Amino acid sequence: MDETTEIHVYPLFLSSTESRFLLKAIKLFNDCQSLFRMILQSEPRHKAAGEPTLDWSSIETDLQLLSNGDYSIFVTSKPLSDNWFSHTSGSTSVISTSEWLESYSPPHIDGYLLIEFCLVLLIEICSLNELQLNPHEVCTGCLFDFCARKSEIKLKMRCGFICAGHKERFLQFSVQPNQILAIEAVLDRVRDMALGRAGQEPLSHFTSTSSTDTMSTQLLSQDRTVDVAILCALQSELEMVLTALEPTKSISSWVPYGQLNGSHTYYEAEIRSISNQPIRIIAGTARHMGLTACAILTSEAILFFRPRLVLMAGIAAGADKTKQLLGDILVAESAFNYGAGKQQSNIDGGFQPDFRAVEIHGSLARMVRECANDRKLVNDIIERWSDRSKDLRRINIHIGPVGSSDQVMNDLDRVLDVRKHVRKLIGLEMETYAMYRACVDSIHRPLYLSFKSICDFAAEKTDDWQSCAAWTSAQFTASFLRHKWDSIRKIPS
Ligand SMILES: [Zn+2]
């Protein structure tokens, strides 16, 4: 049983309206989790009563004396003289509610107090000071966004999350994982309030309890955040991924993720990187092939699981038979929708393309190149292949632009036409662009990468190579993840 940490909350020149919201916020905070318990204290006397603003540097020592070494939060209606929302020093913080009701509400002031509680409490319990937190200068939705424009805090409330980078930093600086989970439970509530869903149960309640794997269910009911989401267009592709990433039996094996009230089935497991770091993964398939279904799947997976990295594995058509072999792996360094553009009559010039590419993160591109040049890694994959009727000994990895569209491509002229506009085109398929776009446009902005292997060349359709191609793609996905996860998790978010 975890010990409860008490937090003393003091009103300090707080208006009577705002005092009522403080009571409500304390109750909500205590109801959301059981690791921290906020206790309202009576208002202390302080000499700054007549001051129009509170100057943190001159009251800091007084408040620390009043708090007597306990975790303490002072809540005031007065503005802070530097216009910040809050300040923390050691185990003492002040939060100002000034201007909130007039300028920023809704969300109401109890929601604002809750998110500020989360922020100052994490700083109080870690061994960093507020200058060492590396807040995001640009708004990302993370609890540790700097919010140079005060209204940006509303985005933070709607997102209600702590980014992977900041979580890791807190874990390094003496915050316990269960303390982060407790704060995240409060943030879930803030998000519901900010989105006007205050009457609903917190999202974490949607986790199924019907799974046969009790350990896993417990894990999930506490925290749905995963490191990696692997998405596929087809069930047959997903099965190759689950096999390629077969977890060590002693850790866990793939188990279906319970009902999430979403429209897809996911599987989850924990695997290990080559340096034995745990990687928590969910994997799922879209309900149909094509861009729309893939965008829906990706968006849902990001919202439910907040992965740091989204990967896609599967099959594609090669773009150049003279340079590529069946089974070769295509890494989409960028992806675009080759159906996007304006269709005019042939007299007026026919199809006028308007391709807008989404590119992968530069560090991921470098890591993929390292893997592609690692002949041992590639040979290990080849050695695992057992079907002698298909020769994989010369397979290669191609890195470049991939075109996606809802059409199944069976027309060489059309391929050549796309290649006229995207000279280095390596392949065509039906999902990657939608996955990349959904990642870029999501509030959590995960990293993304797609590995698809060649099962045919357009105009030369064959089903013979589909399962072999799905296999090489899944194997490369697994090798890449195991070899590069330690570096990927260090990419700043
Ligand atoms: Zn952050």
Topology:
Elements: E1 5-11, H1 16-32, E2 36-40, H2 56-67, E3 71-76, E4 86-89, E5 92-96, H3 100-104, H4 109-125, H5 153-159, H6 164-172, H7 177-194, H8 214-222, E6 228-232, H9 235-244, E7 255-256, E8 266-272, E9 278-285, H10 291-305, E10 309-318, E11 329-337, E12 341-343, E13 351-353, E14 358-359, H11 362-372, H12 375-384, E15 397-404, H13 412-421, E16 427-429, H14 432-440, E17 447-457, H15 466-488
Parallel strand pairs: 1-2, 1-3, 3-5, 6-9, 6-10, 10-17, 11-15, 15-16
Antiparallel strand pairs: 4-5, 7-8, 8-9, 10-16, 11-14, 11-17, 12-13
The chain binds zinc ion.
Share of helical residues: 25-40%
| Number of domains as seen in the coordinates | 2
Number of strands: 17
Over all CA atoms, what is the radius of gyration?
26 Å
CATH class of the largest domain: Alpha Beta
* Sequence of strands across the biggest β-sheet: 2-1-3-5-4
Strand content: 15-25%
CATH fold description of the largest domain: Rossmann fold
Distance from N terminus to C terminus (CA atoms, Å) equals: 34 Å
Largest sheet: 5 strands, mixed
Count of discrete alpha- or pi-helical segments spanning 4 or more residues: 15
**How would you sum up the global shape?**
elongated
SS content category: alpha/beta
CATH homologous superfamily (4th level) name of the largest domain: Nucleoside phosphorylase domain
Q: Quick check: average pLDDT?
A: 88
Heterogens: zinc ion
**CATH architecture descriptor name of the largest domain:** 3-Layer(aba) Sandwich
pLDDT < 50 runs, ≥5 residues = 199-222
